[in-house]
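Contributing new records

If you add data, match the layout below exactly. Sequence lines come first and carry their own label; structure lines follow with theirs. Keep one chain per record. Anything else will be rejected by the validation script.
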Amino acid sequence: MEERATGMKGIMIQGTASNVGKSILTTALCRLLTKRGFQIAPFKSQNMSSHTVRLDDGKEIGISQYEQAEAAGRLIEPWMNPVLLKPLENMQTEVFLLGESQEVISGTGFKELYYEKALSIIQKSLAEAEKNSDLVIIEGAGSPVEMNLKNRDLANMAIAELADIPVLLVADIERGGIFASIVGTLALLTEKERARVKGIIINKFIGNPALFSDGITWLENYTKLPVLGVIPYIDHQLEEEDSLGGVSRPEKRKLTSKEMEYEKLAAHLEANLDIEELIEIMKGDS
């Protein structure tokens, strides 16, 4: 592991699984904290997605990072998504570094061919994120405890360590098994990794969140971590990185409707999240 970034303030959003809502929560946080007066840098070190955006200069990045930058009121820059792996047919993957296509490789060949180079680029991109923001919001990928993948992790706890940044753990209550997913994830982290986790967010709640008060009490007593929010399920019109959307191009005609979506998500998050405690965690005051 290379020398860590120092002095960075922000948070990393990790999940108990894929599709727990990390991307949308990150987008909502980008807009909410921007409205609070912070210069926000969205960041995802390694993105595996077929749904991308091709910028005017031909560079290609993940759709979620494009929307997160837009929600934060800033232009997308390739360092916000330094490594993009684009799945193709027949177990092939197209590798993009800082938005530029490198080559198409076997899906199993990335670590041998690109791991060290990608790690170096991520390190430099984190430095750009820190230099160009007050707070950095890093989105993880999948789960941080896929034990067969941890030795080549470029997306979760290895990046939290590289950035030396705290972590929030997001769980999707809609899919069931939320207590096991949270406790199991924390149990599989190393002691050092576990110490980075500063709070829990329960996402996609259907019904009255007040009815989950006993669940919050149990989780906080068992994990010794605060539950910072129970976020009700919300319909949105933003594009998902896991969809089979192909390559998009920025379209100004969509900006007005997307602005409304960013505002809606920010208001929804502010009403259901302890934002003041989150800001303290991001600043290192908690």
